[in-house]
């Protein structure tokens, strides 16, 4: 009797899965039709995925920015198994703790900027940003300034889909039909050198003008992604973050660095704060902390913010799964692999190579801008290079057809094609991705 490949299902079983998925599963950002057929991924190995029909794909998204060490690593499954056999779960509320959570907190402090002193564990990135907002406001309240509640964010920012995080998010699509959203957030211009003239000067002047308008004594923090991911993989000018931080410091405003995407090697350093030369007060992280193998987030706070949170009665917030021992054990093993296999260096080197390959696409009339940092890269499509009119329809068409026609998983957001592959990516993988992009743009873009 033939042994069925675990990724390939008999036709009748596959049809059941397609139907059940269509009838019962609510997917994020997807509205199914009667003939919709999900791509049901069944197997992952390295940078490759295999669906239930046996088709193999190159993953150029890292499964939503997550898969730092690639798919199918038995070491992480073993770490989870070993921990679950010892202690699968117990609460970390009050004075209870567990060894993996303690060890992981210590490891994160070792890797983070020198001013960091405390770690609060969450389930994911949205929850990490919720906690970051609470910590920032609590810090000021416990230092005698309870009026400091306003949080500054940016247009086109993405900070999650829980309610405060959604309010901080600067993308209109996430604001419709779910309101009213919490107040207390103000959105500034995104630092987009391709779209904003004299980008840093403009953004700094705007920040100072807004502070004069609202009163800096009313502002708790500014939150920002070091590189704006969902907003189009926008890499700010090198002087943007140091100059923005200087204004915030002058007015006693905390800096929350949303490193949910950028932390744990994606930009070629453990944290993008190092890459951009800033010292945040709070860093929110998730995704790459476990390479997506188990859900976990971590908020890393400066010693000053930690000390404020530990004042009586302590930090009165908690998730059931805060400091989940199995998740923390997997994170520890994941970070070991990132370090042992030199994946920070690989992200920097291979990211530069992929950016070079994308730069070669500038001869195509639909390519307006190419940008990247480490293994975070974006291609902005335009209808006309002179006017920079965004080619949203072309990007949507590519997003719809790219995976099926090229066997490469990418993501499109508005006029942007964005790429965030596993940190194990090779030059050969980069060649495959760049070649696929050229083929699709030549096939469907203007000649």
What features would you describe in this structure?
Helices cover 39% and strands 17% of the residues. The chain is an alpha/beta fold. The chain has two domains: 53-69 and 342-444, Alpha-Beta Complex (Aspartate Aminotransferase, domain 1), CATH 3.90.1150.10; 75-340, Type I PLP-dependent aspartate aminotransferase-like (Major domain) (Aspartate Aminotransferase, domain 2, 3-Layer(aba) Sandwich), CATH 3.40.640.10. The protein has a seven-stranded mixed β-sheet, sandwiched between helices. A hairpin with a 2-residue loop joins β11 and β12. It is globular. The chain starts with 10 loop residues before the first helix and ends with a helix.
Kindly summarize this structure in a few lines.
By secondary structure, this protein is of the alpha/beta class. It has 2 domains: about 55-70 and about 340-445, Aspartate Aminotransferase, domain 1 (Alpha-Beta Complex), CATH 3.90.1150.10; about 75-340, Aspartate Aminotransferase, domain 2 (3-Layer(aba) Sandwich).
What class do helices, strands and sheet pairing give?
A: alpha/beta
Task: Identify low-pLDDT runs.
Answer: none
Succession of helices and strands: HEEEHHHEHEHEHEHEHEEHHHEEEHEEEH
The shape, in one word, is globular
Taking all Cα atoms into account, the compactness measure Rg is: 22 Å
The tally of strands reads 16
Number of self-contained structural domains: 2
Q: Per CATH, what is the topology of the largest domain?
A: Aspartate Aminotransferase, domain 2
Describe the largest sheet.
7 strands, mixed
């Amino acid at each position: 009797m033939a042994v069925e490949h675990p990724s390939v299902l008999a036709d009748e079983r596959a049809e059941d899965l397609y139907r059940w998925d269509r009838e019962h599963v609510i997917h994020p950002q997807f509205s199914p039709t009667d003939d919709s057929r999900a791509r049901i991924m069944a197997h992952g190995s390295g940078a490759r995925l295999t669906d239930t029909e046996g088709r193999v794909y190159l993953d150029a998204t890292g499964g939503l920015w997550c898969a730092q060490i690639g798919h199918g690593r038995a070491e992480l499954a073993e770490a989870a198994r070993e921990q679950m056999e010892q202690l699968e779960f117990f609460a970390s509320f009050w004075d209870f703790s567990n060894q993996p959570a303690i060890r992981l907190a210590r490891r994160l402090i070792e890797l983070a900027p020198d001013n960091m002193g405390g770690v609060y564990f969450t389930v994911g990135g949205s929850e990490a940003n919720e906690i970051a907002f609470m910590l920032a406001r609590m810090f000021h309240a416990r230092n005698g300034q309870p009026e400091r509640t306003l949080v500054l964010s940016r247009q086109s920012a993405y900070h999650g889909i829980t309610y405060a995080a959604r309010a901080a998010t600067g993308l209109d699509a996430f604001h419709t039909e779910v309101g009213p959203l919490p107040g207390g957030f103000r959105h500034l211009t995104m630092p987009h050198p391709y779209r904003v003239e004299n980008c840093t000067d403009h953004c700094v002047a705007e920040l100072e003008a807004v502070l004069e308008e609202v009163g800096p004594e009313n502002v708790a923090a500014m939150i920002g992604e070091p590189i704006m991911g969902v907003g189009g993989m926008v890499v700010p000018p090198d002087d943007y973050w140091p100059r923005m931080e200087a204004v915030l410091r002058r007015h006693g405003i905390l800096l929350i660095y949303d490193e949910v995407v950028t932390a744990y090697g994606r930009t070629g350093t453990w944290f993008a704060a190092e890459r951009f030369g800033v010292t945040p007060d709070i860093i929110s992280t998730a995704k790459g902390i476990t390479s997506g193998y188990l859900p976990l987030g971590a908020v890393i706070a400066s010693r000053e913010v930690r000390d404020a949170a530990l004042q009586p009665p302590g930090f009165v917030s908690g998730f059931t799964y805060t400091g989940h021992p199995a998740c923390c054990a997997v994170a520890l093993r994941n970070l070991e692999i990132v370090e042992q296999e030199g994946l920070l260096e690989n992200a920097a080197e291979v990211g530069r190579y992929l950016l070079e390959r994308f730069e070669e696409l500038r001869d195509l009339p639909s390519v307006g801008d190419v940008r990247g940092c480490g293994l975070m890269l974006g291609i902005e499509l335009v209808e006309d290079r002179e006017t920079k009119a965004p080619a949203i329809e072309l990007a949507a068409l590519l997003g719809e057809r790219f995976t099926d026609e090229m066997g490469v998983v990418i993501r499109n957001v508005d006029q942007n094609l964005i790429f965030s592959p596993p940190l194990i990516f090779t030059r050969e993988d980069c060649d495959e991705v760049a070649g696929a992009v050229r083929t699709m743009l030549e096939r469907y873009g203007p000649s």
